[in-house]
Amino acid sequence: MEKDRTKEILKAAVEDYIKTGRPITSEGLYEDHQFGIKPAMIRWELNDLSEDGYFYQTHPSGGRFPSDKAYRFFVEELVRDGLKARYADAGYRNSVLKFLKGEMDSFVEDVSDELSMLSVGYEAKRNEMWTSGLYELLDNLDLLNREELVDVVKDVEMLPEKIRTGFWKDEENWPKVFIGKNPFVRSKEVAVVANCLKIDGENFLFLAIGPKRMDYAKPLGLFEILNKSVEEK
Prior knowledge:
Blueprint: H1 4-20, H2 26-32, H3 39-51, E1 55-56, E2 65-66, H4 68-81, H5 90-100, H6 104-115, E3 118-123, E4 128-132, H7 134-140, H8 146-164, E5 176-179, E6 190-199, E7 202-211, H9 217-232
Antiparallel strand pairs: 1-2, 3-4, 3-7, 5-6, 6-7
Helix pairs in contact: 1-4, 2-3, 5-6, 5-9
């Protein structure tokens, strides 16, 4: 993908879908954004992006939905553009303070409430784990049937065993965003934003697990603030 306009259309389409959950249409993009082209040209752009694997349709005459490839592009652009500290409010600062004080249970619960996601914290040295927000995760997932719901619950139940294997300890370049298939959960219906921090030389793993249609800036913004606070400690 080379054209700046094509990238802007793709970013706008994914962001609109994250906000509304409504299928993406050329008319909707034309009404809400200023790309300097007519709906017919936007439709051509969407067709080309669909052929490249960024969108799919459940019905030939219906709107489009972002693929995992589109979500990954969106997150890469979000990180490349730089995360603004728009979430560094008093609530986040209080949560970070709890983390720095070692109040992990309260910290994980606060983050779950703030993000409306499943939050998981794991301190490797003491082999302790804290979780909060399973209801928030299930409530926000766009699941199609009971089987998918059961699969997600099973994944969550298996998380402690997976995390304690320590497979993630040799990874670098945190935080990481996994969309669809990932090493933490089997379900392709969720996204995982993972961060690993060093506290007195020991690993602390934190996961924010939510729907693929999540506001990725929120957990990434939190991790940016948290990482800086740990570095400055």
